[in-house]
């Protein structure tokens, strides 16, 4: 039997299994009725989740409806429910369960030995508190990483790079610099293993959902030892942590002499570090790629306008101070990217009965009474508003009922300030030092790719990068 046939049969069997475990809610469901309608919709949701949301929106006029997917059923609610979810205290609607379910952390990250919801605490306290202290390291790594990634041969004036792939590697290296230092963030095999861990974990988690709980940990161990997982990065990370701890305590045992028990004890800490990478690498690289594709479609004059503001912000704030909050045009581009794409077509969480409840983002982020001409991507949408309203209301990291990129309520993304800082440094360095355009002078952003609820940047889309030489090139002096 061919592999494709086997996958198709398994998918249909799974969709049937999901139907049989699907609870009745009394709410209308997208698609035809009965088990066949359910199965067809669950299969269709893999590539057309957004279309199915649109279908539900048109059919039920913004009222709640059920959307089957290959990872269970979603109850999709309209904007009027945002306040209820925002004020939820995890008793009726539980966000940590949703994250643990989506990532299957009990089995993939052994979260039982790490305490509940460990990564949120780290991001909310240590990462946020360190804030601007990270800027010099992030900028230093950005300069070096981009000069390597965009290096030209002697006969080249520009280079064409696959944007999402390049961003994933740049973000992995740059975000790990303040966390793990230069030796690990520049260790290419280690970074590759971290990226592989973050990419495969999401896939494993979706597959594990199809199996009984008792089988999930052994299945994860089997899959990760065959296709890669946490063990590969931990092979480097755990001895590194061990040597850091030994240095700090004055005991200088070499990492090679450690007993397996000692190494095993550091696994929870290593998993916490990997879980921060899991949270940050794909969000920031997806997000940064969407933004760069749009920056590449601007006219040279518009890009120069953004560059000018970056230079002015820097010179006003002076050496060693953070000019990032003054880069309103860049900030506006990021917020517009969040409005237009979000990360996914819904913002979801779990109600304990086992249903995922999710807010439909389209009626919120494309509401013409809040965002005029919502179908138009306008890098300057929010900076224009900030010219007349002196307010942080329109800033990238400001969370409002009509801007749900980072979620809302008690579980709103705690890593958003770190993400904003890293993205602004990366984008401003890129703009000041390189000309970025689409191949063949194209002015249309390559079509985003929809994978279940995720809105990915086009995975094969390329940009042309050309160093700006002479007095044109400037850089931040932070
Ligand atoms: C552009 C980049 C990012 C986007 C768009 C993003 C988006 C989100 C969203 C939508 C949520 C769910 C919030 C909710 O359901 O209410 C979330 C949660 C979270 N994010 Fe981010 N994120 C980004 C970057 C980061 C980074 C860089 C870190 C870590 C340094 C991080 C750490 C977390 C953590 C720990 C949570 C769970 C919070 C909790 O459950 O209490 N995120 N993020």
From TrEMBL:
Keywords: Heme, Iron, Metal-binding, Monooxygenase, Oxidoreductase, Signal. The keyword Protease does not apply. Heme binds at residue 413. Its cofactor is heme. SUPFAM superfamilies: Cytochrome P450 (SSF48264). It comes from the Eukaryota. One of its GO terms (molecular function) is oxidoreductase activity, acting on paired donors, with incorporation or reduction of molecular oxygen. Residues 1-23 form the signal peptide. The keyword Repeat does not apply. Gene3D superfamilies: Cytochrome P450. PANTHER family: CYTOCHROME P450, P450, PUTATIVE (EUROFUNG)-RELATED. Belongs to the cytochrome P450 family. This is Cytochrome P450.
